[in-house]
Amino acid sequence: MEYTSFGRTGLRVSQLVLGAMTFGEQGGVGAPIEECRRILDAYAEAGGNVVDTAINYRGGASEEILGELLAGRRDRFVVASKYTVSRDPGDPNGGGNHRKNLRLSLETSLRRLRTDHLDVYWVHIWDRHTPIEETMRALDDAVSAGQVLYVGVSDAPAWVVARANTLAEWRGWSPFAGLQVPYSLVKRDAERELLPMAEALGMTVTAWSPLGGGVLSGKYNAGPAEGAARLNGQTISDADLGVAKVVGEVAAELGVTPAQVALAWVRRRPGVLPMIGARTVEQVRDNLDSLQVTLPAEAVTRLEAATGFSPGFPADFIEQTGPWVLGAAAL
Fold first, then answer.
1. 96/91 Cα distance (integer angstroms)
2. In Å, how far are 69, 164, 222, 237 from 123, measured between CA atoms?
3. 12-21, 50-59, 275-284, 312-321: segment of lowest average pLDDT
4. CA distances from 254 to 109, 219, 248, 265 (A)
5. Are the CB atoms for 212 and 262 separated by under 8 Å?
6. How many CA atoms lie within 13 A of 240 on its CB side?
7. Which residue among the candidates 3, 43, 57, 83 is catalytic per the annotation?
8. Where is each NADP-dependent oxidoreductase domain found (predicted)?
9. How far is the CA of 15 from the CAs of 111, 191, 206, in angstroms?
10. Is 150 a catalytic site residue?
């Protein structure tokens, strides 16, 4: 396992992030606590040091289980949690990114995780009703109080994140050091605005659902002919099945698993750390082995061609008009 800086900070984080959304059996299929212990131990033994959870995962059980499993070794990990999702659907102030919910959510997470601080605190989802100035100032107050060391943002438009960090820079507040987005071979939307923004602002990206919600795990590699295949009650598109088929072909040629190919593709982008979420220790060990996979250039070309992805406007237009705009200076 190698390590990199978390954004423009001195915090060192591992190449793979362990997602704890599967910790607990509440609200659907998940992992019981003893399996969670084996998962965390296997991850730590491989050198992983970042564990990501949220106040709402498994109705709070994820944080509670993680707090128990980290007892006696909490300081060896970079512990991250998120807030935004409602603590109480009947309370109009029970959710959102405003100061009140931040304070109450943070207190709840610290109590469940049995710690006096979070290493990274994420804004989970953009709340269009709360001014970004309020959120950034409230986060900075939590940092000043020592309850949070670094802050990040998940699932928000690029313009919101850029504005937030510009405000933080001007006013001397703690900026977002990390960005969390869905990113995989079947979900490349982040390449349009979010990933270029993160690179420009020096933010580390943690990619959730790098296996496309399981589509790229190897279970659906039969291709478009299996268009009726379903995942979590939803029909998988022929386009996604076609990508999964190519992932399976590349995996067979390299002698690795499809999941390892999918994770290696995400990891090859600078500044992007895949988040692995497993329900069994066997799954997490398979994911960890992706660190040994290097994709040949030809394989990368085939994988990306299978997605049929285009950045769209304005990226495509700017690229096409480069010679016209810049003349001899165009690259």
1. 11
2. 24, 12, 38, 31
3. 312-321
4. 42, 18, 10, 13
5. yes
6. 23
7. 57
8. 16-306
9. 28, 20, 10
10. no
Question: What is the percent of the chain where pLDDT is above 70?
Answer: 95
pLDDT of residue 29: 78
- Does pTM surpass 0.85? yes
Contact 204, 6 (CB under 8 A): yes
* Residues 4 and 36: beta-carbon distance below 8 Å: no
Measured CA to CA, the distance from residue 39 to residue 248 in angstroms comes to 25
For the domain bounded by 3-329, which CATH number is listed? Answer: 3.20.20.100
Residue 14 CA neighbour count, 13 Å, CB half: 23
**Under a CB-based contact definition with an 8 Å cutoff, are residues 111 and 136 in contact?**
no
Domain locations along the chain: 3-329
The residues, ordered by sequence, that sit 6+ positions from 215 with a Cβ below 8 Å of its Cβ are 186, 231, 236, 240, 241, 243, 244
SS (H, E, C) the chain: CCEEECCCCCCEEECCEEECCCEECCCCCCECHHHHHHHHHHHHHCCCCEEECCCCHHHHHHHHHHHHHCCCCHHHCEEEEEECCCCCCCCCCCCCCCHHHHHHHHHHHHHHHCCCCEEEEEECCCCCCCCHHHHHHHHHHHHHCCCEEEEEEECCCHHHHHHHHHHHHHHCCCCEEEEEEECECCECHHHCCHHHHHHHHCCEEEEECCCHHHHHHCCCCCCHHHCCCEECCEECCHHHHHHHHHHHHHHHHHCCCHHHHHHHHHHCCCCEEEEECCCCHHHHHHHHHHHHCCCCHHHHHHHHHHHCCCCCCCHHHHHHCHHHHHHHHCC
What would the two tokens of residue 198 be? Answer: 């993160």
CA–CA distance from 305 to each of 165, 242, 258, 302, 314 (Å)?
34, 11, 17, 5, 21
